[in-house]
Amino acid sequence: MSTSALAIEGLHKSFGKLEVLRGIDLELAEHEVVCLIGASGSGKSTLLRCINLLEPIDAGRIVLHGDDITAARVNVDRVRSGIGIVFQAFNLFPHMSVLENVTLGPRKALRLGKAEATGRATELLGRFGLADKRDEYPDRLSGGQQQRVAIVRALAMRPWLLLLDEVTSALDPELVAEVLEVVRELATEGMTMLIATHEMSFARDVAHRVCFLDAGVILEQGAPDQIFEAPREPRTQQFLQRIVDAGRL
Amino acid sequence: MAIAVASTLVFFGALAFLVTRSPGWDRFKAYFFDWSLYRESFPEIAEAFLINVKIFLIAEAVVLVTALGLAVLRSLPGPVFVPVRALAIVYTDLFRGVPTILVILMLGVGMPALQLEGVPDSEIFWATVSLVLVYTAYVSEVYRAGIESVHPSQDAAARSLGLSRFQSLRHVVLPQAVRRVIPPLLNDFIGLQKDTALVSVLGVVEVLNQAGINEAADFNGTHYLVAATLFVAITIPLARFTDWLIARDRRRRQAGGVPT
Ligand SMILES: Nc1ncnc2c1ncn2[C@@H]1O[C@H](COP(=O)(O)OP(=O)(O)O)[C@@H](O)[C@H]1O
Ligand SMILES: [Mg+2]
């Protein structure tokens, strides 16, 4: 068996007394798209932040393409430059134009020349319908456009793995589709992705596998049809029932 | 607009009436407002003022950099940097606590008195150093407030792209922080410009001492009026520039509210 794209073993993470992740085991194969569902506060964001080494972990290992990235002495900057993350709140740099947002990482972290970084950015912006926005400032874009720029910013690093943290939760309903469309396209192209989401129909549509995170552990995982049609765990059933009641499935 | 003009006229008219009717007005007027003396004294005092200008221009340029360095040291995270942060805090407390005039006296008198090889013995040099030391403490607090006002998610976004801590500070956090603190920073610089008058305690014939010398010669306070005019003349442009920056910043934020 070839090495998996990402392997998480026995991951524990606490904030003070609050134990948020209580032993996470999760593997992603190359080109696999995994959706992470679970109630608000169940630890989805924390898990993604741990994978990107934005949060120090308390126990366990995270292995990326065979390399233990949680070992002592790893170059965290280099690891991060190979993992893209897109946040719920976009977190674009407001003092930079769209083009500068997208080229910052390639230029400073990957040390690409200006021409090469600009070429890469222009190509990606064009592909995602943002060509005419490259000189705009983030504040002047719609939420959907901002989030697409944030995705492009992550992609410009050519990451091994893309982490998406509820990328549509801060958007007006009519803007959700344009962002999901981008993610769908990336899935088709074979991008390895771990996606925390509340968009159940999207998860069902795009994911190869769905994981239900509850009280700091992955309580249940399986093919989308199995999780959504025939969840085994009572907690999963309750969670999905609440989603259905809220009219979101 | 018409109301504003009318009320302004009435207010200042009443004030002028009251002041000029006061019993000591004639003596006061002769002491401070001798216009021919004003014109006569102006070139000499303006030339002395160039010393003040030189001091604050150099001090401001240096403070801009040293204060930023101090602010960055103080915002270094984690237990490793505890001693660095502690030193920065001690420095800030010390130089904000001691009256500026005392720092100028101690360094301006003390350092030349040492007569050490290689240590400059110019009072102006040490006065400038004193102002730099004091205003570095003030301005670093301004910078620090700016750094802390940048949301941590900005740093997280930069670090997630693989930028180092320093690169994130340099390209993402500081540019936003500095933009936000330009008005209070210029405010401190106006204070610094006025504080160059404190250098007079060292006997340097800068603007205040020159005005004092002239006053002592003919017992006329118009020379002080000249000095005051010069300070106001350099402060007003900076103050209006600050107002303009604040207004521009507000316009910009209103124009581009984050659409969520
Ligand atoms: N930096 C932090 N400090 C303290 N508690 C935190 C921090 N980040 C998250 N938490 C807590 O961890 C729990 C999980 O949060 P999060 O990972 O954001 O959940 P989710 O993304 O699934 O909504 C919540 O109870 C939250 O309050
Ligand atoms: Mg979350």
Any chance you could write out the topology, listing elements then pairs?
The complex is a heterodimer of chains A (249) and B (260).
Chain A: E1 6-15, E2 18-28, E3 33-37, H1 44-51, E4 59-64, E5 67-68, H2 76-81, E6 83-86, H3 98-108, H4 114-127, H5 143-155, E7 161-165, H6 173-188, E8 192-196, H7 200-206, E9 209-214, E10 217-222, H8 224-229, H9 234-245
Parallel strand pairs in A: 3-8, 3-9, 6-7, 7-8
Antiparallel strand pairs in A: 1-2, 1-4, 4-5, 9-10
Chain B: H1 2-20, H2 25-32, H3 35-74, H4 82-97, H5 100-114, H6 123-149, H7 152-160, H8 165-195, H9 207-218, H10 222-255
The complex binds adenosine-5'-diphosphate and magnesium ion.
Describe this structure in words.
The complex is a heterodimer of chains A (249) and B (260). Chain A has 249 residues and is of the alpha/beta class. Chain A has a single domain, classed as P-loop containing nucleotide triphosphate hydrolases (Rossmann fold), CATH 3.40.50. Helices cover 37% and strands 24% of the residues of chain A. Chain A contains nine helices and ten strands. In chain A, the strands form two sheets. A six-stranded mixed beta sheet of chain A has the order 6-7-8-3-9-10, sandwiched between helices. In chain A, a hairpin with a 2-residue loop joins strand 4 and strand 5. Chain A is globular, with a radius of gyration of 18 Å. Chain B is built from ten helices and no strands. Chain B has a single domain, classed as MetI-like fold (Orthogonal Bundle), CATH 1.10.3720.10. Chain B starts with a helix and ends in a 5-residue tail after the last helix. Chain B is an all-alpha fold. Helices cover 81% and strands 0% of the residues of chain B. At the A-B interface, helix 2, strand 6, helix 3 and helix 5 of A face helix 7 and helix 8 of B. Magnesium ion binds next to helix 1 of chain A.
Category by helix and strand content of chain B: mainly alpha
Mean pLDDT of chain B: 90
Identify the CATH architecture of chain A.
3-Layer(aba) Sandwich
| Beta strand count of chain B | 0
Q: The CATH topology of chain A, please?
A: Rossmann fold
Going by CATH, the homologous superfamily of chain A would be P-loop containing nucleotide triphosphate hydrolases
SSE series of chain B? HHHHHHHHHH
The main pleated sheet of chain A reads as: 6 strands, mixed
